[in-house]
Design goal:
globular; single chain; alpha/beta
């Protein structure tokens, strides 16, 4: 929503720590992902409801390139026992193989709505009627910094939409957004967020160019993936209304008062490139927006639009609302904890050969069971989260995060 002013973390073996899973704190594993719908649509971390004993994997890595081998473009020829496939040297023939994996720090970009409505609208963020309400921006800023401090093993980046310093005017200037992230993914995320996120409401304003905000975040993560294909990558969008600022708008009325459906394509492109997109809504209503010149799209159900956005991005949760709707500081923090808690338990498969098929996973030399996604908070094991990603559950995730080694067992498919 815009509201533009007219005229903004080598432990024990797997078996030795199984008993810890059910008493682990939320920091270790925040609990079960929401149940998937019967139609196989995605759950809170992008999994589907279908279960199988063997996972057929894509032939390219999450970074969009065929994995394995020593060359990058085969320009000088491949080594002994290798062949060139799509410009990359890979083993000439597929063979059963075990691939060791240790913790890879997730790369997460917060794509944050900085439109004027984030500073104009207030809410009771602490549930105490005796304390004054605060703006949405105040709550979101504090929650993002706190999350980055809590999840120290994650590297965070930031993209604000629109840019810092844009005016809250009914002109194209309010939609200005650069092609660079405000903070690149790195180890000092909390410090960067604290420095860049406006500390006062005065620095918050403009329209809601969410499409461009997601595109820039995804492009940055694509570079991260090319440098380190086995790093899980995610975008978390935080938004309080419907996307506007259409690039093809013929005038200001169309620019601000119509919904930019291109935001769905941006989220879908993120998912396809290996950077799925999660959505946190800020105090979202299912009522239709009024038809008036107020800087927000007219006659739309913002809640339904954010459902669509979460589904397009591949990290929709189960339940009536497919995105994470928040109404105070507690729900913002719990939504971030659930999402990031799943991200630190994610392994990118990255098969060693285009014909490789994942047949199992070992921890401490023992086979870890494949689970139904709905059992993740109750049992120890893993499941296919889709898109060449695995989600680890319970003690298995704890072992992985503590530096324990996993072994992905590959066989050869057809």
């Amino acid at each position: 929503m815009a509201w533009i002013g007219v005229g903004g973390r080598q432990g024990q073996g797997f078996a030795g720590i199984v008993g810890l899973a059910l008493v682990a704190a939320c920091f270790v594993d925040p609990g079960p992902p929401p149940a998937a719908d019967s139609d196989g649509t995605t759950t809170g971390d992008g999994s589907t409801s279908a279960a199988a004993t063997t996972i057929m994997l894509p032939t390219t890595s999450s970074g969009g390139e065929t994995s394995g081998g020593s060359g990058s473009e085969c320009s000088d020829g491949c080594g002994l026992g290798e062949t060139c496939v799509d410009g990359v040297c890979v083993p000439a023939s597929c063979a059963p193989e075990a691939v060791a994996r240790t913790f890879a720090a997730p790369a997460v970009v917060f794509s944050v709505d900085k439109s004027r409505s984030m500073s104009l609208n207030t809410w009771d963020d602490d549930g105490d009627a005796n304390t004054p309400e605060v703006t949405r921006w105040t709550t979101i800023r504090e929650a993002l910094i706190a999350a980055a401090m809590t999840w120290g093993e994650v590297e965070f980046g930031l993209k604000l939409f629109p840019d810092l310093g844009v005016p809250s005017t009914y002109t194209a200037d309010a939609c200005a957004i650069s092609a660079a992230v405000n903070a690149p993914v790195g180890p000092n995320g909390a410090a960067a967020l604290n420095m860049i996120l406006p500390a006062t409401d005065d620095g918050v304003g403009g329209g809601t160019p969410a499409k461009a905000g997601i595109e820039v975040a995804v492009a940055h993560l694509q570079g991260v993936g090319e440098a380190a294909p086995r790093r899980p990558r995610f975008v978390i969008v935080v938004i309080d209304g419907a996307a506007n600022c259409r690039a093809d708008a013929v005038d200001d009325l169309e620019r601000f008062e119509t919904y930019d459906a291109g935001v769905l394509d941006a989220a879908a492109a993120g998912l396809m490139s290996g950077s799925p997109v999660a959505v946190i809504g800020v105090d979202i209503s299912a009522e239709l927006t009024p038809a008036m010149t107020d800087g927000q799209p007219d006659g739309v159900n913002v809640s339904a639009l954010l459902d669509d956005l979460a589904l397009a991005g591949g990290l929709a949760r189960g339940g009536a609302e497919r995105y994470y709707n928040t109404h105070d500081a507690a729900t913002v923090k719990s939504s971030l904890a659930e999402l990031i808690g799943g991200m630190v338990c994610t392994v990118v498969v990255d098969p060693p050969h285009p014909s490789s098929v994942l047949a199992g996973l070992l921890a401490g030399g023992e086979a870890a069971p494949m689970l139904d996604p709905t059992a993740c908070g109750l049992e120890n094991g893993w499941y296919d989260a889709g898109g060449g990603r695995l989600r680890l559950c319970g003690a298995l995730c704890e072992l992985y995060r503590a530096g324990g080694e996993l072994s992905l067992q590959f066989e050869c498919g057809m």
